[in-house]
Amino acid sequence: MMWFNIAKAQSFMPTQGTEIAKQVDNLYGFLLVTSLIACVLVIGGMIYFVWKYRRKSPNDKTAYISHNTALEFLWSFIPLVIFLAVFGWGWYIYHQMRAMPENALEINVIGKQWAWEVEYKNGYKTVNEVVVPINQDVKILLTAADVLHSFYVPSFRIKQDAIPGRYTALWFKADKLGEFHLFCTEYCGTSHSGMIGKLRVVSREDFDKYLEQGQEERFLPLAEKGKKLFAVKACASCHAVDHPGAMVGPSLFQKFGHEEVMDDGTKIMFDENYIRESILEPNKHIVKGFPKGVMPTFQGQLNENELSALVEYVKNLK
Amino acid sequence: MANTKAHGDNYINFEKGIWSWLTTVDHKRIGLMYFITVMFFFLIGGIMALLLRLELFAPNAAPNVGQILANGDVYNQVMTYHGAIMVFMVIVPGIPAILGNFFLPLQIGAKDVAFPRINLLSWYCFMAGAILAIATFFTTKIDTGWTFYTPYSIRTGTATAMMVLAAFIMGMSSILTGLNFIVTVHKLRAPGMTMHRMPLFIWSLYATAILQMLATPVLGITLLLLAVERFLGIGIFDPKLGGDPVLFQHFFWFYSHPAVYIMIIPAMGIISELITTFSKKVIFGYTAIAYSSLGIAAVSFFVWGHHMFVSGQSETTGIVFSFLTMLVGVPTAIKMFNWVATFYKGSVEFRSPMLYALGFMFLFAIGGVTGVMLATLPIDVHFHDTYFVVAHFHYVMVGGTLMALMGGYYYWFPKMFGKMYNETTARISFVFIFIGFNVTFFPQFILGAMGMPRRYFDYIPAYENLNKISTVGSWLILIGFLVGLYTIVQGLMKGEKAPMNPWGSKTLEWQTSSPPPHDNFSVEPVVTAGPYEYR
Ligand code: HEM
Ligand SMILES: [Cu+2]
User: Measured in angstroms, how far is the CA atom of residue B439 from the centroid of ligand 1?
Assistant: First the structure.
């Protein structure tokens, strides 16, 4: 079975972070080699024949060979056998991917335009960063807040769509420490290509420490808690906080206490109430130069305490 | 300006004036009208492709700091129009509407299609849909991708409903063409032409017509439901209202997977014609090729779920669809082997249509084997919605269908226009397109294997080099098409007069003058043997 590995070296697949990844790569290596053989046979055969039987004079006589049943049966049957073998092998691996292990560590992930919201069982929330312990079955429970997204970690060879109004799940057991890319592969609008996260595989101890730190953040001062929320709720994917440039939405940098011009020409004071209104009813007043209907409402997703924290944070962007 | 009476001796000069074209019921003229309009859309779609590639030449420094295109939204719009135009306005209608319309009656020895007026109507449907589709560009533009997946397509503040209506109207055109072809094949064959004496291009158009008639209505209804959902919000697809967003994908692919075969089966038909003609040899396994078209058409209805392996459908569903998809591979492989076997002991002439046929086989082989990879469940989980898929479908649709279409153009150019094109520039054009194509799309397989998702207007630096190569390739393709355009224009203006049968082909369309007279044949042909009796 050496040649699978040779093929793999040429397959440009990303690092294998799980056992399943190795299995997938073996099958892929097999397919790569058989495909190569098939292409060499077909394309090579074609080139050989067209060259050998190229037209030598305008009245060349050609053979009258209309068919050959035995040959035709053979070349239908052999591909069929290969395809079915590949299918069976694929089924075997796919079944392992889909069979959820019991007692897995469960992590909830919500896809939203345009960030991954991650929530651990103890209530700790992060955004665009999933941290998991090594050598442990992890089950990701997925859903989406707005449109379809797809959770994809190339190094683990896993992918699953996140669907609003429904849970889907995937599992993995990482066996390599390190940091891996997490992409969104289901097109989800403007910043689809910016919806990139990290999946960090750490040791058991580091994982426990990580969760503890998360716990402590509950006791942060108001503005810092707001800062955290600003990231978790993915406000940061659309609003700049350290420069005045517009992103998807207007920058919030140094806005507090200044007047803002709306698309109907009126001016509104950027004060606490305006911040609050913008979070809960974003489309009531639209800042000049920005399209309506882009920012989702956060009505029902934040409690009063969290709202105050966000207002406090935005107030302090100086 | 009604019919100018001085009737010329061929279909082009038969009547004069733009009005005589816009009201014509001559299938050849309608074919030419499709030719001009479809090529125009191809140009627009192509310019957009170049823009997309330019944008992807390098990753952006910061979000929303576009390089060529202003920002992500603009990229997404261009990506959507490129895809939608190329699929609905170029590749799907391309072969049946242009070459099918022109050559189906000629190849079966008929005077016209069965319903000439419906034929004209289908062109008007196509134009109405196309104009509506282009018009969305001047409103809010759409940014859903050509697949219109819900719930994004319900929520986005863009002209989805209008675009969907446009696709619906173009679908009508496709259905009408299919209907017309089926009846024509059954009713209007020349005396002596049994089904088994039909050229393979006709078989392929016949299989395609069945697909067009059966699958397109599903798309139509799906798109109407989408429009209804947008306007009335009755909760079919929108999860907020209790609808099922994945249901849309089932509906959509129930059309769009067969649509892939609407694109490729006629291409296979053309390739069969080119290969026998330029090997001067009877095609190997005529019956197998003819029936495998029907076989592919039949099975293609049962494989749509392979687009949805990671959509949350059940494990069993995935397995069933993977299995059925493998079965489609077989008739496809059969055709490849038949073509190769046809060369054996033939007399192969490397005219430019033949170069396109060989290019087709090369690219289609790669498109085909990567298709098997995508049909394999766990491999698809990794590749789904990455650049691997982008590379695969470009190999099949562009490398396959477009190559065949180009080969068909050169092959039938003398018949359509009565002029010969310049062989040298045609070959140069082919070489640039072929090399450029591989330089553009081969690296995308690797990008996909490395994990680069599709529909990304920006990417991580690790993907940069391969994207650069890919973009440079798109410039080579551009050069190739410019040389090709030159060849066509030069041939039309200055080409030598074409003889009746410049390639020594056996099929009926070559038994009439070039260009053909208004009613195709001066004497009704009588068929006494199979279509490829080279002895
Ligand atoms: C010069 C040739 C072409 C180039 C350089 C090119 C390039 C591209 C690029 C960069 C994308 C976006 C991929 C993504 O981000 O997912 C794309 C998508 C696409 N292209 Fe092309 N393309 C070419 C020709 C064609 C042709 C002739 C067709 C017709 C069949 C076609 C059909 C499509 C489709 C259907 C999509 C998908 C759009 C979507 O994701 O919604 N392309 N192409
Ligand atoms: Cu997303």
Answer: 15
